[in-house]
Amino acid sequence: QTVPEELQNGGGFGYVVAFRPLGTVSWMQTVVASPDAARYVFRNESLPPFSPYEVKVGVYNNKGEGSFSPVTVVYSAEEEPTRAPTTVLARSISASDVEVSWAPPWENQHKGRIQGYEVRCWRHDEKEENAKRIRTVGNQTSTKVSNLRGNALYHLAVRAYNTAGTGPSSAAVNVTTKKPRESCQTSPCQAFVQIYQAQPFYFIFFVRFFPVLYRWNRESSTSVIETNKTSVELSLPFDEDYIIEIKPFSDGGDGSSSEQIRIPKISNAYARGSGSSTSSACTLSALSTIMISLTARSSL
């Protein structure tokens, strides 16, 4: 900062700029004769980028030299990184998030300090110049990209940056976000229960590609059977009540459950009706087999 005129204490006022490479002994000096000057540029084509220098500034007038400012360290201008990050990897975390990681450029193959990294992410049907940009700071070599579209193909690329700008981009990698969470949107998923005579007994449920959750009516714990088939069999004691639910599932997570379906204990080998069917007593084997067939009653 320049010295105000009332503090110059005489004519012929100017500045003395002294500087030296950090760690050396001898000072270089130059005179800036204008009292209004606020900068001085030292040019040296052989000076490496981002070289540290110690600098102090003194004052003088016709009566002689004044004191110097405290010594401070300044750096020559830096160049942007010249090499791209390597080993870029991306993986889908959910329907809206992906994680990307990378390795720094080889130290002996780039110039310029690295202050952080810029991750660019764009959907396959978008232009790269419209990519979402996320910047990390320091040595961080992974980050999460959020608010993406589910079940969509994305391209990601990484480049290093500093005060001079950004370096070259890594090769783009591809990742597809997971499918969005499924749920019954129009109405609760429905299941139809039919009990009929067979050896062993069969209970038939209609719902589509969902895990089946069941528990004994008097127990709080729940057993789960997952299947990608359109049917599943359960072997259960015939003389207990059971509660059954059917829930959609995909890579995006669990969906909404169907209404609970109560299966009363079987006491009539010829009972036929809905899940609320009841009947009179008869003698059965210790276990009955429940067959659950899966289809869909409402759109997902």
Automatic annotation (TrEMBL):
Matching PANTHER family: CONTACTIN 3B-RELATED, PROTEIN SIDEKICK
GO molecular function: cell-cell adhesion mediator activity
Pfam families: fn3
Organism of provenance: Rhodinocichla rosea
GO cellular component: axon; plasma membrane
Fibronectin type-III domain: residues covered: 1-79, 84-180
Predominant localisation class: membrane
Entry's Gene Ontology BP terms: axon guidance; brain development
InterPro entries with a match to the protein in the record: FN3_dom, FN3_sf, Ig-like_fold
Protein name (record): CNTN4 protein
Gene encoding the protein: Cntn4_0
Keywords: Cell adhesion, Cell membrane, Disulfide bond, Glycoprotein, Lipoprotein, Membrane, Repeat, Signal
